[in-house]
Structures are given as C-alpha cells and as structure tokens.
Specification:
Shape: elongated
CATH architecture of the largest domain: Beta Barrel
Number of helices: 9
Number of domains: 3
Helix content: 10-25%
Strand order of the largest sheet: 9-10-11-12-13-14-15-16-17-19-20-23-25-26-27-28
Radius of gyration: 31 Å
Structural class: mainly beta
CATH class of the largest domain: Mainly Beta
Largest sheet: 16 strands, antiparallel, barrel
Distance between the termini: 61 Å
C-alpha cells in the first residue's frame, strides 16, 4: 500500500505540488518585507544667497547712461551669450536698479546651464563716462569640511568628495551626484551647508554635519507561511574606510515546523563613482501545510539555498532621478522532499540552477509623485553544476520536466501619488514572462502581501504571470507620544499565472483577486505596524472555507533608527 502511494506521488509530483497547496514558486519571494518608516532626508539641493551689495543698493535710484560694458570672469559660457544680455542697455538712460536686474539675468543664465555657485554682480563703482563693470564669479568648492561624528566613514566621504574639488566651476550635475553618492554610504546621514562664494576667485567651502551609525538593526513579527514568527536583521555599516556594509537576516523558529530562513550579504564599493560589488546568499527551509500532498499520506519539506555575486553602477544619479544597472551571476540548489508518514520512505526532487542576470532600475522622485520601475532578464545555463533529478530511497528515479537553460524576463513597477488633503494613491504591478518550463526557484508566485491579500503566501505560481494592486490611503497626523501618524487604507489586487508544462496547464484558468481594508501605525522612526483584513473575490483560497476574511499583519521595529 505504501509503495503504491509512493508511486502515485512520483507519477503526479508536479501536479500535486501545484494543485491546492501553498508555498509555490520561489519561497523567498513570499517573505513579507521589513518595511522601514519613511523619513525625510535633508535634500541635497542647496541654496546660497548672492553676496550683499550694500553700496550699490544705496544707489539703485541713480540714473546712468551705460556706453561701454566691461564684463570680466566669463569662462564657462560663451562670452557672446553673456554680453548679449547687456547690449540692449547700451546708450539708454536707466537706473542702477534696472542694471542690477539685467545683471541678474546673467546669474539666471549660469543657473540654467547648471552652474549653481556662479553669479554676476555689479560692484560699487563711479560709472564715469558710461563705463559699467560687471563681474562674473564662477564658483567652485575649494574645501570640504566634515563635522560631527563621521567615525570610520570619514575616509569614504573624503574620497567621494574629490570630484567636487576638481571641478571649476562646479556644475549642479556633479554636486548632486556626489552628495547622493555620499547618502549611499552605509550608516551615514548628513546635513550639507553651502554658501555662494564671497571671494573674487570663486572659492567656497562645503560643510557636512555627519552622523555615522556603525550598527543598525530591525526586526518584526511576520507571517512566514507557517504562522507568525520573529524575523531579525542586523547591519554593520562602514566599519572600514571602504564604506562597506554587511547584513545578516534570520528567522527565529519557535516550533519544529517553523520556517528556517537565514540570509546575508556584503556590499563593497569599488572606486569613487558608485560602482559596487555585492555578494549575497540565503538558506530557506520550511514544512508547508500542503493539503494536496497530505491527502496522499506524505509530508512536504522545501529547502532552497542560493548564492550570488553582482556589480551595480548608477548611470544617472541626481536629486530627481536615478538609473542603476546591475550584472550578476547566481546559483540555486532547490530541494522538494516528500516523506511517507509512518515509514522511512521518501521521494525528492532536486534542481540546481546556474544563471546570469541583468537589470535596469529607474527611480524618479517629485513632490507629488514617485516612480520605481525595474526590468531584468535572467539566463540559465546547463553547465557549471546545473542539474535536475528525482530520486528516492526505494529505487525510483526520474528526470523532472524543467529547462535549465531558461530565459525569463521580469518587470516591476510602483507609482505613488500625493493627493490633496493628505490622501495618497499607490499603484503597483509585477510581471514575468518565459517560454520555458522553469525550475521552482525561477517561477513567479503570488499571495498575501504579494498581490494576493486574501490568500496565503505562494497561493499561485507559474512560469509567467502578472500581478497588480491599487491602494488609496489617508494619513492622519496624531502627534501623541509614541504615535505620530495613522494611515488607514483600502486596497484591491489581482494576480494570474500560467504554466508552460502540458501537465500543469489545467491550472492556468485560476486567478487571484481580493479586497482589503487596513491600517498603518508608526512613530516615523522606531516602528511600523501594518495590518489588514482581506477577502478573496476570485478563486477560492486554499485556506479555511476559501471565501472567508483573512488577517494579515507585519510588526516591524528598528534599533537606533536614522
């Protein structure tokens, strides 16, 4: 009887695992994020005041007739463009105030061309014989002074500042890129102070009030698929002059069936222009409650191990937008094991993936909206240890129907709008496309926080699929101790997947959709609670009666938040 049951499971391994049970696709995709409260960092866009011209200001009403303009200090912009702004004033009776206004147009021209520290000034003079001297100061940074507690991060900040010291005159593009690169130094926050030059040569000083947090940590109580579990993460930030970050994340199993999840990554900057090396990996092990498999008398254990290495570079980086490219390779060993109850018989499917990936991520930030879009492609290789097999301890073996030399495309997008009266609208979507029969670790999955609030994690997966959600929220500022804001929200989501394997195509007709009402509670620094109740409105859930309300919750805490 037992051997017959094992044979039945071997025959329908893929179908049973994808019928009515949870935790499909890449299990790590289903893990809820440890969301951090949004804090407003001081903007790197800096403003300076034009030096006071008290002597000239006292003579603004004086009438003059300019006959000759002597413009000095122009190098970065063609001289003809600058002088053309003053030519219309020649041989006309004007006030000194009108002359100053026209001179300000030269400053505006420099700002429009991207020179934030450059300006034109009419100094105190006699205007004898109609001669007008206009001085253009092309500003640059001659020194970067780091104040506060930069700690071991100071060397990294100093090295990133070098382009600011080399460029004369300073451009807005360089200023914004360098300051944003500094904001990417792990554990570092700072407030910049920069004034327009007060020296004739255009030199000025940038002052950075820096705070360095060497160690940061956060944690939460989240649903990892088998129930609520603690999830902790700790980071070591810029402990050496390299400006590196080492991060460890792990779940705390409270029972024998709880999820075992451990992850780590290290990011090391290369050079001083944003190039970075990242090495990451994780171990995941869970025993999901899979009704389809349990009805056959088996217990299921899922284990996934991954390691990857990649390079990233910000091709575009300023105060409004960024475009980052990433190239990398990774290896995944995934195991799906089925143990027959009350016996020592087991059946196991192993898949070993070796792949390369490339990604572009574009982010824009504006006062009333923000956009985050990423496009990636991954290519598998049937070499370097890639393998696939089904084996057992009772003599059965086979080869699973998956493609190791797969190609898959992924697109993720999120658009947020700030509406009047503290309302907000967030639109999100994720999609994947592949013509191949993908290993489980490469499939896309949906459920719970991932476009399926009314369903358990990993409720549905496939070789290709799409998910989308729309959320309307309203922020209420509370301002009481320990609670700064409440944000109720309404959300609707949709997800659908498709399998390319012929034996799984009967499941392609199902899709997920749900409505949810929730609340976020935060102090905007140390904690964020996010909870909601959701109801399926499309395919029935695999949990409970399939149509009931589902409670979702994330409780996140942050140590020494910055």
């Amino acid at each position: 009887m037992h051997i017959g049951g094992v044979a039945l499971l071997a025959f329908g391994l893929c179908a049973a695992a994808h019928a009515d049970g949870p935790l499909r696709g890449n299990p790590v995709d289903a893990l809820p994020p440890l969301e951090k409260p949004r804090t407003q960092a001081p903007p790197p866009r800096l403003e300076g005041r034009t030096p006071e011209q008290s002597a000239v200001e006292a003579r603004l009403a004086q009438r003059i007739v300019p006959r000759h303009f002597d413009v000095i200090g122009v190098h970065a912009i063609p001289f003809a463009e600058v002088s053309a702004l003053l030519t219309p004033l020649a041989n006309k009776e004007i006030s000194v105030g009108e002359l100053v206004q026209q001179t300000d147009r030269i400053t505006a021209l420099y700002r429009a061309r991207g020179f934030p520290l450059s300006f034109a000034v009419v100094q105190n003079q006699s205007f004898a014989q109609g001669k007008v001297v206009v001085t253009v100061v092309e500003g640059f940074i001659s020194n970067v002074r780091v104040e506060g507690d930069a700690g071991t991060a100071k060397a990294r900040i100093d090295s990133l500042a070098q382009p600011l010291l080399r460029e004369k005159p300073l451009t807005a593009a360089t200023l914004e890129r360098v300051l944003n690169l500094m904001r990417m130094v792990p554990g570092v926050t700072f407030k910049p102070a920069l004034e327009l030059p007060r020296r004739a040569d255009g030199a000025t000083e940038l002052v950075l009030d820096v705070r360095h947090q060497a160690v940061s940590a956060n944690g939460g109580v989240v649903d990892l698929g088998t129930g609520m579990q603690p999830l902790l993460s700790a980071s070591a930030n810029s402990l050496t002059p390299l400006g590196e970050q080492t991060r460890l994340t792990g779940s705390i199993p409270l029972g024998t069936d709880d999820v075992r999840y451990f992850a780590g990554d290290i990011t090391i900057p290369i050079g001083h222009d944003g190039l970075g090396l990242k090495i990451d990996g994780f171990h995941y092990k869970a025993k999901p409650e899979d009704d389809a498999v349990e009805q056959l008398g088996f217990d299921r254990t899922v284990q996934t191990d991954r390691v990857g290495i990649g390079l990233s570079y910000p091709f575009l980086l300023d105060n409004r937008q960024s475009l980052t490219g990433t190239l990398g390779v990774y290896a995944v060993n995934a195991q799906d094991r089925y143990d027959l109850r009350h016996s020592d018989l087991w059946l196991r499917q192993d898949t070993r993936v070796r792949a390369a990936t490339a990604e572009l991520r574009y982010i824009t930030v504006a006062p009333a909206r923000s956009t985050d879009v990423s496009l990636s492609v991954s290519q598998g290789f049937d070499t370097l240890g890639a393998d696939k097999y089904i084996d057992s301890n009772y003599g059965y073996s086979s080869v699973p129907n998956v493609d190791l030399d797969f190609t898959r495309w992924n697109l993720n997008a999120k658009q947020s709008f700030v509406l009047p009266a503290q309302f907000g609208l967030t639109l999100a979507a994720a999609g994947q496309y592949s013509d191949d029969v993908l290993p489980t670790s490469e499939q896309i999955s949906f459920g719970s926080w991932r476009f399926g609030m009314g369903y358990p994690q990993g409720e549905q997966s496939g070789d290709k699929g799409v998910g989308a959600s729309a959320e309307v929220n309203r922020r209420f500022t509370v301002g009481i101790p320990m609670v700064s804001a409440l944000q109720p929200y309404l959300l609707i989501d949709y997800a659908r997947t498709w399998y390319n394997a012929a034996e799984l195509k009967p499941y392609n007709t199902q899709h997920l959709s749900s409505v949810a009402i929730g609340m976020r509670v935060t102090d905007d620094r140390y904690y964020l609670f996010d909870f909601n109740v959701a109801k399926p409105i499309a395919s029935a859930s695999s949990e409970g009666d399939g149509r009931g309300w589902r409670f979702n919750a994330n409780y996140s805490f942050y140590y020494n938040a910055i």
